[in-house]
Amino acid sequence: MHDVRAIRLDPMAYDRGWAARGLAAQSAAILKLDQARRDTQTTLQSAQARRKDLSALIGKAKGAGDAETSNRLMSEVEQLKSVMAEATAAEAELGQKLQDLLAGLANLPAADVPPGVDERENVEVRRWGEPDSRGPARDHVDLGASLGLMDFDSAARMSGARFVVLKGQLARLERALGQFMLDIQTLEHGYTEVSPPLLVRSQALYGTGQLPKFAEDLFHTTDDRWLIPTAEVSLANLVGDQILAESALPLRYTALTPCFRSEAGASGRDTRGMIRQHQFSKVELVSITRPEDSEAELERMVACAEAILKRLELPFRTMLLCAGDMGFTARKTYDLEVWVPSQATYREISSCSNCGDFQARRLEARCKQPGEKGGRYVHTLNGSGLAVGRTLVALMENYQDEGGRIAIPQALHPYLPGVTRIGEA
Fold it and tell me: Catalytic residue among 351, 353, 366, 384, which?
């Protein structure tokens, strides 16, 4: 959410920021609504002040026995009641229109975000590991089917497209990956593990920016709750409507949860396999910081996500997203892209973003020092550490052998006692 007072001070800066994302200028429409709302507030305040003055004059007139003056002044009060009622209604309507307009506008990119309109203009920051160059690789769908441990047909019969049933050692491997990721993020990187609700109210999704703009991407229940598309929603809302002591920051939370997405805008994309599904597991990272600390916290979060891929010895690259490819709430984003041998390319497996105070304004999350009044909005950050399903895909394809067996990385041996290879008799 943007601060309309800041837009009044420098509307062109906001228009430039939206233009960098490929969006139309909005400041003129915002300021027009804002001025109309303020004019209505002035009308209401003037009417209220006049009514207060009239009340005193009516009292004097009645005390003096001047019925004519008293009646005339009371008639004016009745007229003012109508004016105030209309002004109150108009102020509420204009305020809601302004709120709705601001709620639908994306965050502004940070100054060091590269220009660009789509993923082709993202900037590679670094690479780690050497991609497998042995030639064409079997994809995870063929590997899983040949092992009898990945069943898309049964999932489709019970749930429709974009679901999967994992069995046996693949189900164990998925569980092991999630536990491994959680252990690294909590025991080594200092995140606090949380087991949050998977169903949230509309206000929670509004706070993190999924509503109202992205309602079609979500699953809505009949009792007006929503399945979370990411644990970011639940974790960020832990600080909603709170004023935090600055000495308590940063707060770092992590959770392993199922995530649910309708993929409404993904028709025809990644229809084969586990890359893009309606239900998947993910280890989410969320940080709450002082404003001056969020840039450093983003770099730290990216390193925490990268550490998982390094431990699993999966080749990846780190990309700084251009302005046009960032998510709605982000002011700066890094994507981690893991090597997928069957596609001979890198695919996103984690996205880490600094949202600045964009979400905090919607969440009403502030921090302050002792003795300070009001405080200031915190900065929020979120990232994947990592998407479990996509990590499973990468592991299966990068660790396959010519016989279709899948080796278990050394880092996962403690989580799969006695199993070093899936597919051995």
Answer: 351
Strands 332-340 and 150-151 turn out to be unpaired
User: Which class for 86: exposed (0-12), middle (13-18), buried (19 or more C-beta within 10 A)?
Assistant: middle
Mark whether 350 is an active-site residue.
no
**In angstroms, rounded to a whole number, what is the distance separating the alpha carbons of residues 354 and 169?**
37
- Indicate if 276 belongs to the active site: yes
Contact of 243 with 366, CB cutoff 8 Å: yes
Write down the catalytic residue from 51, 127, 276, 311.
276
Q: Which of 21, 37, 261, 331 is catalytic?
A: 261
pLDDT of residue 268: 61
pTM: 0.92
Best CA proximity match to 354, nearest among 380, 377, 336, 378: 380
pLDDT digits (tens, 9 = 90+) for 342-394: 999 999 999 999 999 999 999 999 999 988 888 999 999 999 999 999 999 99
For 181-237, write each residue's pLDDT tens digit: 999 999 999 999 999 999 999 999 999 999 999 999 999 999 999 999 999 999 999
391 closest CA partner among 318, 308, 333: 308
Active-site residue, from 193, 263, 313, 348: 348
| Span 71-96, pLDDT tens digits | 898 899 889 999 999 999 999 999 99
What is the per-residue pLDDT across 244-278, written as a single tens digit (0 to 9) for each? 999 999 999 999 999 999 986 555 667 788 999 99
Contacts of 420 by beta carbon, 8 Å cutoff, 6+ apart: 407, 408, 413
Run of H or E including 156: helix 152-159
390 is catalytic: yes
Annotated catalytic residue 55: no
